Amino acid sequence: MELRHLRHFIALAEEGHFGRAAERVYVVQQALSSSIKALEDELGVPLVQRTTRRVQLTPAGQEFLQGARATLALAEQTVARARAAARGEVGRLVVGFVSGLAFGGLPEIVRTFRETYPHVAVELRELTAQEQEAALRAHTIDVGLMLLPVRDPTLAREALWQQPLVAALPAGHPLARKRRLRIHDLAREPFVFFPRYLRATYFDQVMTWCERGGFTPRIVQEAIEVPTLLSLVAAGIGVFLPIRFFERVALPGVTYRPVEDAPIVEIDAVWRRDDDQPALRAFLNVAHTVLRGAGDDRPDEPARNPT
Predict the structure, then answer these.
(1) Radius of gyration of the chain (CA)
(2) Of 3, 170, 181, 270, which is most buried, counting CB atoms within 10 Å of its CB?
(3) For 100, which DSSP code?
(4) According to CATH, where is 3.40.190.10 located in the chain?
């Protein structure tokens, strides 16, 4: 049984005339008659009663008409969903992200993506960069947003945007009176920072920058989350060097100042190199579009096709 046979039968049932039905489906009358006979032969029951003036449905034909309409409607929906999936408009996407991105970039990207592709279910998972790499290899996330470079040849990466480091100072700190700082201004200050094992690349980048400024930071307190570190700053325990978009965290007791020649931290999207699902490509394109309009530092190159 072919879909064209169902279309021919529906046209005949609704027109009640072989000639008009044939014109409606753009076939000759003989072809339409052959389709109806093929259906009747396959079903083993007559579907229509033929008279000189009009075609009427048999009881079996009336029942078959309802099923034929439902079948064609389902087929059309299936085709539409397949085409939508090819455009990345339906499906499911699991996105991993490091905790800091919840304060800048991630909310805007996800909100815009959900508005643009409302039929793609987006699941967010907060993971460290190392956990994201493992999750990508295990196929438990589709794309990761992280600050660390990846070296796994099975994973592809795309630089989404870049952020300089800034100084987070306790409110009322003498250095807060300056509009801009130089890194050596922080040489005598106690620092609060991440443990190295948690974010080794970030840690080493900051240490190298400070050493070039003539000192090694004196870390007096460690914490694993940015909000905790900023709370330590607000308590006057030390200074912190977060990425610039953390200035959005207007925590009482914390003042942010730019630092000249601050290193740039790159935020990457990472995915499996062999993953060509359209929803992933759509997500990357939305991310670039959103970040272009956000005013943050970012690479000029467009999103690549994730293949």
Answers:
(1) 31
(2) 270
(3) G
(4) 90-161+265-292, 166-262
This prediction has a pTM of 0.63
Provide the b/e sequence for 172-202 (b: ≥16 CB within 10 Å): ebeebeeeebebebbeebebbbbeeebbeeb
CATH code linked to domain 3-86: 1.10.10.10
Residue ranges of the chain with per-residue pLDDT less than 70: 52, 84-90, 148, 293-307
Question: Given the structure tokens 């643009």, which residue do they identify?
Answer: 116
At 245, is the secondary structure helix, strand, or coil? helix
Query: Distance between CA atoms of 117 and 106, rounded to whole angstroms?
Result: 16
Q: Which residues have a Cβ under 8 Å from the Cβ of 272 and sit 6 or more positions away? A: 136, 137, 139, 142, 154, 155, 156
pLDDT single digits (tens) 78-126: 887 777 666 666 688 999 998 778 777 889 999 999 999 998 999 999 9
